[in-house]
Amino acid sequence: MPAKGKHRRPKSQRFTRSIAAAGTGGAALALPLIGAAGAHAATPTAAVSGVSEKTATIAAEKATAEASARMEQAEKAAQAERTATKKAAAKTYSVKVGDYLAKIADEQDVEGGWKRLYSDNRAAIGSDPSLIHPGLKLSIGARAASSGTPESSTKTQSSQSSKPSQSSKSSDSSAKETTEAKDTQASTSTSSGQSSSSNSSGFSVPIQGATVGTAYKTAGSMWSSGYHTGVDFVAPTGTSLKAVGAGTVVSADWGGAYGNQVVIKLADGYYAQYAHLSSISVSAGQSVSGGQQIGLSGATGNVTGPHLHFEIRTTPNYGADIDPLAYLRSKGVSV
User: For labelling alongside 140, which of 62, 90, 225, 289 has CA 20 to 30 A away?
Assistant: First the structure.
């Protein structure tokens, strides 16, 4: 029987309080531990995130630079291809009235000038580029398919220009001032017999000691008339050229494909033409005597080498030609 005046407390009550206290203490202890764990966990995550962003930025910049470099290389390659295509692209040019190779090469911006143009079209033009006829088809920018002649085989003098030489300009400007002196000198020379090139009739060969190159009426499609309208005398640049007879200078200037040229109206009404001169010694309107020097041979205009292109015409214009050697022989000149 229970003791008097005492009551036993159920043990379960103490146990509950202990659990509650323990539970309370556990909770109190658990909360800061959880917070600390969370704090420690956040630090490496942020660091990894920062590194990843930096790496991504560097990678993006590198990719952009590489893409830019590729685009630049592609643009350069495309530009090079366009340039090569432009240079390689050939076009056909149809010769017009008044054209000559130097003029065409200049207008069509041919690299290498008329010499390259002639080399590329030698098969179509022929052995003498001095005259090209209207309608002739020339290849611009590439060698014509039928032409197998290398450019180096074109015998030209690099020192000669397709424009009037400085010496011809100075000669032209000084010729007027020395006209009377030249006429007097020529007259004295002829009368005293010092002019060995003229005969008793007053006629002379146009050039001494030269050999005949392309003969008169040599056939060829490069000439509008279908043949060579004069005769070519092959001679070094600077060889003296003579008036074949007495007459008056009709023109003494640049003649396009003929280069520096002189045309003289002879006393009998015929005209003598001298082409490709390196220097001109007379001027338009001047009177000349047979055997008088009118200039020096050269390689101006459209030529493959130094020579004199000589014509005798019934008018001062191209196409009115007659056999120049036959004419000279009819005047008693041995040629």
Answer: 225
Give residue 296's pLDDT.
95
Q: How far apart are CA 35 and CA 82, in angstroms?
A: 70
SS3 of residue 190 by DSSP: helix
The maximal CA–CA distance of the chain, rounded, in angstroms, is 189
Distance between CA atoms of 24 and 10, rounded to whole angstroms?
A: 22
State CA 109 to chain mean position distance. Answer: 5
Across the chain, the runs of DSSP E, i.e. the strands, are 91-94, 137-140, 211-212, 231-234, 240-242, 247-254, 260-266, 271-277, 279-280, 287-288, 293-296, 307-313, 321-322
Residue 270 is predicted with a pLDDT of: 97
At the fourth CATH level, the homologous superfamily of domain 166-330 is: Glucose Permease (Domain IIA) (2.70.70.10)
Sorted by where each begins, the domain ranges of the chain are 91-153, 166-330
Whole-structure pTM value: 0.48
What's the start-to-end Cα distance of the chain, in Å? 178
Tokens at 95, concatenated? 């010769």
pLDDT of residue 331: 93
Closest alpha carbon to 296 in 312, 311, 281: 281
Q: Quote the tokens at residue 68.
A: 């830019």
**pLDDT (average), residues 126-130:** 63
**91-153 homologous superfamily:** LysM domain (3.10.350.10)
Confidence of residue 130 (pLDDT cuts 50, 70, 90): low
pLDDT higher than 50, residue 157: no
Name the band, by pLDDT with cuts 50, 70 and 90, for residue 279. Answer: very high
